[in-house]
Design a protein that fits this description.
Shape: elongated
Largest sheet: none
Number of strands: 0
Oligomer: single chain
Structural class: mainly alpha
Order of helices and strands: HH
Distance between the termini: 20 Å
Helix content: 55-70%
Number of helices: 2
Mean pLDDT: 91
């Protein structure tokens, strides 16, 4: 199979990890320059929820690769 049989698990690990890290960084370090029409900070509840979803997906993928 092209790129191995675990390609879907690797993709879920990559997207889940990026989702988790990206949302946490959006909360920790807001943008220095605020453009017109954008928020000064990321919404906390939504960012934490999306970081949680990303963490669960990354953890599921990691455990699937290990077992």
């Amino acid at each position: 199979m092209f790129l191995g049989e675990d390609i879907l698990i690797w993709i879920v690990l990559a997207f889940g990890g990026a989702m988790c890290v990206g949302n946490i960084l959006a909360l920790v370090k807001p943008p220095a320059k605020i453009e017109e029409g954008s928020l000064p900070r990321a919404p906390k509840a939504r960012s934490l929820a999306m970081a949680g979803v990303g963490a669960v997906a990354a953890l599921w993928a990691l455990l699937s690769l290990v077992s």
